[in-house]
Amino acid sequence: MHDLHIHLGGAVPSSVLWEILCDNGLRTEYVDFNSFHASLTAKPDEVKSLDDFLGRYFQVTEEIQSSPSAASVSAYQVVAKAYRRARVQSLELRFNPQKRMRHGLHTMDAIILAVMQGLERASLHYGVATGIILSLGRDLPLEANWQIIDAAVKWKSRGSLNGANGVVGIDMAGPESRSLELSKPWMSEVAAMMEKARDAGLKITYHVGESEGTGPEGMLRVLETVRPDRIGHGIELRKAEGKQRERIISILKEHDICLELCPTVNRVTRVVPDFACVGDFVRTLAKEGIAYCINTDNPYLVHTNLRHEHEIVGRELGADADPLLALGISHAERHRFLLP
Known about the structure:
Strand content: 5-15%
Number of strands: 8
Largest sheet: 8 strands, parallel
Strand order of the largest sheet: 1-2-3-4-5-6-7-8
Distance between the termini: 15 Å
CATH superfamily: Metal-dependent hydrolases
CATH class: Alpha Beta
Order of helices and strands: EHHHHEHEHEHEHEHEHHEHH
CATH topology: TIM Barrel
Helix content: 40-55%
Number of helices: 13
CATH architecture: Alpha-Beta Barrel
């Protein structure tokens, strides 16, 4: 199995983060491990929205991971956990390096190199193919996002070392509530960033259609403007109607764009009311001939792993489970950004 959508900020065991926090003498409000662990457990009845989820958990985890040593240990543990729990064969880890520089104390290059080294060790130890996707941020100034693009081009795949591929792609992530994808000037600037990355040989994925903040219209704007190789989530496609729906499906099929589905996180953030919606969505995608794959997103925050995510979808698919899950795995293998 292949996990193509997994965030460094939400994929590290709380025990590892607690050890990093204590070893580095960081000051926090948490008095012991139990309170810390409880604070990093996303509970569906407490999370109000996608924005709430991102603000509630990621600021804490990103701050703890904000040093080269912490970033390296965190990256290693993501792969180790994914292999031990679900025998993951390949993993593309995404993170925003700007948010791990501890207000300028560390350089972006140092953070990226540290994550790369952590993944190289993990690939050597567990035989998992790995790659880095650098995430831009909707909540960052455009100048800061351009700096991430420049760093991605600089650190672009330095060849496969023990199965570790270095930087392989670019992502756009962050709160969707400002509906920035509906702004032509903003999208024009982002499209220029993505084009620079693509010209350098990097692949493109893009968080959109994850909530009603961007919805089907935001998804269509991204597809028409950026033409990403993959879409992060895209679950809001299920709400599209008429010509809008036809246009989205047409672009997805014509350009063979893969949707990265993340069932449990969508449930926790209240994007979908239940897992039955995800099962129905998978059936629709398969019927329409649209590529999809199943991923974990933030496995430790929502206490899941890739095998569990497949089981969740499988239960909803019933008799259709085996062929449709196998199809998703084949899509994941074909749409990986990793070198063959």
